[in-house]
Amino acid sequence: MASTTIKTIDQASPTIYAYITPNDVSKKGWVKIGYTDRDAETRIKEQTHTSNTKYELLWSYDARYDGGEYFIDDDFHWYLVQSGIERGKFEGTGRPSEWFYFGQGKEKQADELFRKFIFKDYSQIQAPAGGTQYQLREEQIDAVKRTLAYMKSGKEPSTFLWNAKPRFGKTLATYDFIRKGGFQNVLIVTNRPAVANSWYDDFEKFIKWQESHMFFVSETDSLKRTKALSRKKYLDILDNYSKDDYRTVKQITFVSLQDLKGSIAFGGNFDKLQWVAGVNWDLLVVDEAHEGVDTSKTDWAFSRIMRKFTLHMSGTLFKAIANSKFSAEQIYNWSYADEQEAKRDWDYYQGSNPYEPLPQLNMYTYQLSAMIEEKLIEGQTIGETTYDFAFDLNEFFAVEEGKTTFKHEKDVKKWLGRLTKNEKYPFSTPALRRELKHTFWLLDRVASAKALAKLLADDAVFMHYNVVIAAGDGKNLNEEAEDFVCNEKSYDKVRRAIAENEYTITISVGQLTTGVTIPEWTAVMMLSNIASPALYMQAAFRSQNSYHYEEKGKYYKKENAYIFDFAPDRTLVMFDDFANKLVGDGSASDKERPENIKRLLNFFRCWYNANSWWRLQNRMDIYLF
Predict the structure, then answer these.
(1) What is the DSSP string of 563-620?
(2) 3-state secondary structure 475-510
(3) Residues 6 or more apart in contact with residue 123 via CB below 8 angstroms
(4) Would the N or C end of the chain have less CB density within 10 A of its end CB?
């Protein structure tokens, strides 16, 4: 590969369209109403070519309100149902389809209702009061269904794991599980307080307007300016309900694991959260279960929580699975390979592809040790023996003790020079830099982050980037972090920097790697020897989230996300873990291991140095230089 090709953002044309199939007797009076980011005719042909169905396009319009805001077909579908239009269902599953019955000869009514909808004319229907309808994807429905079935079976232990990749949509799926399970008292505990915002936002957007007696209770700092209730305000609301209506009131309480363990009632030293131990919870949700939950302090704290059922959620729970904490029937797995297979194999007859907004993940692996050839040649002499030089990323970015500069300052500067000048590197041209406007760089130590930020500020290219340091406790990436208060502040700093600057770089030492979504990030730079597969995978997926925006009247969306890794040996080990330790109970047999790798490789295109290593379908690409 002569030079690096990076394409993160592409122009799209959000379109709502309607068509009929006049030769299909069973569809007389029915209209198919769908959505596409491309040309309507192209999308319709994808839906009809397999059955050789003749269609007639009724109309296609930009998917945007009169005020300019874009929407998707689910919003218009909801409007049609609320307007009294019958919605079809798929045989067998009973899931709603994109077919709507207007009556034979009345198909033009769809056009009339669309024109009312884009002007937000809710005069004939009940408006959603700021809320939005949600429709889960198949894997989310399956996760909820299997968990409910296990819970109702009465089997012990009464705990279940969603072992699902980042971007699975855990918050919305959990809320659906809560609604279908009929839980009254729900406690959500996480080691990452910053994710409180996503839990609260989804509650307000999708749940509250449909569940008027359900309340979100939290005193987490990041929610101080929201309508989340304090414990006292929730109790005040309860006082307004009669004894007969008391059971209709439901609470979803969100607390941080740090606050919980700090409480006297849970083994800490502070007089807070004692009331949590006094509630008989219907459901305990442990969010990001791979973090901070494998200690005796945490185990003891959880033992003090009275609950009927526990739902664990994580994208990378390698250790817990390997330790056989969950049996196969207690785990719902959903991996990157599962997602990409679903995206590739989607039957467009069912409607819009729900996986389409999820970008393709690409990996470029660089052999950074090639920059320090003299050290490789010299090796290291100890006594009378000379040992080969062993390259170490953490050593490469190590800072002189008591100083603010790198031990290998000349080599780090040389590396920065290659990033911006060598055609194989991601920031080597203005065009590439425009594709990577906002990126996430992961280092090992706070001192290294500060030293790198200083070099970036003096670099002819990177001086034009706003650099945010998301670090503060000075801990190693492989150490357990007990306090993530800074995580919330870092999130705010990054959001502000992106809002105010065209180009940003976020340098992290563990913060913002889990449960936090920054849609504008298009790449992750792995600049440390992360030993934990869990942390590596969580960090790697920080850029693989849907993102769209409008600029100068044109609509753009993220098509690709990137990982740039500078430790090739580690990358291959992580790849094997990725393929085999997120399958079943994490104990793949010798026979299963190569099959799991082969399956994951269906979504990779890989090169080793200049020679072909693996070359397969390009769902997730790896390039090694």
Answers:
(1) EEES-HHHHHHHHHHHHHTTSTTS---TTHHHHHHHHHHTTEEEEETTEEEE---TTE
(2) CCCCCCCCCCHHHHHHHHHHHHHHHHCCCEEEEECC
(3) none
(4) N
What is the mean pLDDT of the segment spanning 162-167? 84
Burial class of residue 115 (count of CB atoms within 10 Å of its CB; 0-12, 13-18, 19+):
exposed
In sequence order, which residues have a C-beta less than 8 Å from that of residue 383 and are 6 or more positions away?
A: none
- Radius of gyration (Cα) for the chain, nearest Å? 26
Kindly give, in sequence order, each residue whose CB lies less than 8 Å from that of residue 45, ignoring residues fewer than 6 positions away: none
Is-contact 362 621, C-beta < 8 A? yes
pLDDT bin (cut points 50, 70, 90) of residue 2 is low
Write the single-letter amino acid at 367.
Q
For 292, residues 6+ apart whose C-beta sits below 8 A from its C-beta are: 191, 257, 298, 480, 481, 482
- CA nearest neighbour of 206 among 181, 226, 176, 183: 176
Pick the closest to residue 347 from 610, 603, 95, 1 (CA basis). 95
Measured CA to CA, the distance from residue 309 to residue 83 in angstroms comes to: 39
CB 321 within 8 A of CB 586: yes
3-state helix, strand, coil in the chain (%, to 5): 35, 20, 40
Q: For residues 63 and 12, is the Cβ–Cβ distance under 8 A?
A: no
CA dist 601 → 337, 515, 524, 619 (Å): 9, 26, 21, 9
What would the pLDDT profile of 34-92 be if each residue is shown by its tens digit?
Answer: 999 888 998 898 888 766 789 999 999 999 998 788 888 888 998 898 899 999 988 76
- The Cα-based distances of 185 to 144, 159, 346 in angstroms read 18, 16, 38
Task: For 390-436, write each residue's pLDDT tens digit.
Answer: 568 888 999 988 889 999 999 999 999 999 998 889 999 999 999 99
Helix H or strand E encompassing 550: strand 548-551
Of 32, 579, 22, the closest CA to residue 337 belongs to 579
Q: Which of 115, 73, 125 is nearest to 97 (CA)?
A: 73
* DSSP sequence for 307-342: BS-EEEEES--HHHHHTT-S-GGGEEEE-HHHHHHH
Q: Please, which residues have CB within 8 angstroms of residue 458's CB and are 6 or more apart in sequence?
A: none
Asked whether the predicted pLDDT for residue 588 surpasses 80, the reply is no
Q: What is the pLDDT of residues 254-309, one digit of tens each?
A: 999 889 999 999 988 999 999 999 999 999 999 875 555 557 888 888 999 999 99
Backbone φ and ψ of 403, nearest 5°: -125, 175
How many Cα atoms occupy the beta-carbon half-sphere of 53 within 13 Å? 20
Residue range 121-127: average pLDDT?
A: 67
Per-residue pLDDT for 484 more than 60?
Answer: no
Residue located via tokens 């006049």: 22
| Domains recognised in the chain with CATH numbers | 11-127 (no CATH), 138-343 (3.40.50.10810), 365-566 (3.40.50.300)
Q: Please report which confidence band the pLDDT of residue 496 belongs to, taking 50, 70 and 90 as the band edges.
A: very high
Amino acid at 461: V
Using a 10 angstrom Cβ sphere, with 0-12 exposed, 13-18 middle and 19 or more buried, the burial of residue 440 is buried
Q: Determine contact, residues 21/55, Cβ cutoff 8 Å.
A: yes
